[in-house]
Design a protein that fits this description.
Layout: H1 3-38, H2 45-77, E1 93-96, E2 99-103, E3 108-112, E4 115-120, H3 125-130, E5 138-141, E6 144-151
Parallel strand pairs: 2-4
Antiparallel strand pairs: 1-2, 1-6, 3-4, 5-6
Helix pairs in contact: 1-2
Length: 152
């Protein structure tokens, strides 16, 4: 499998992970909504209102997570896996002496085809350090020398 195909596979895997996460959040939201709507008012009115408020706060938190995950998926959809990069930028796959990095979304480690890739955002400190670098460039991050060997 060539390296461009690996980038396309990584992108597909991340999109699938975002879809799965969105489905899980949507199911949790639906369950919380049903729980809130089915909660019958007891004689302890304050307790009832407190319970409903707690459920509503959880629903608000899940709605925010759903929006964030949707935004991450939308960012991924902007990446063209066929594009060849000269500089490290959003959508590029970096091969370094310290591992492989996919400048995309803040996901963390992702195992793919027997290799480990670190999916990181350009907003992260390491992502910012990589941005604009080209193959052959070196940088020091966390006291460790990183050599950018290849950009895809």
């Amino acid at each position: 499998m060539n390296k461009q195909t690996i980038k396309a596979g990584l992108l597909d895997a991340l999109i699938q992970l975002m879809d799965e996460r969105m489905n899980e959040i949507e199911h949790s939201l639906q369950a919380a909504k049903e729980s809130r709507d089915n909660d019958t008012k007891s004689s302890a009115g304050d307790k009832y209102e407190t319970g409903r408020e707690m459920i509503q706060q959880e629903m608000d938190k899940q709605a925010a997570q759903l929006a964030k995950t949707g935004a991450m998926k939308n960012d991924l959809l902007k990446i063209n896996p066929e594009k060849k990069y000269e500089l490290a930028e959003f959508g590029s796959l970096l091969v370094t002496n310290a591992g492989n990095y996919f400048l995309s979304i803040a996901y963390g480690k992702l195992a793919f085809m027997g290799e480990e890739y670190i999916c990181l955002s350009l907003a992260s400190p390491l992502g910012k350090s990589f941005f604009g670098k080209e193959a052959g460039d070196e940088l020091v991050f966390g006291g460790k020398k990183i050599i950018l060997e290849e950009i895809l």
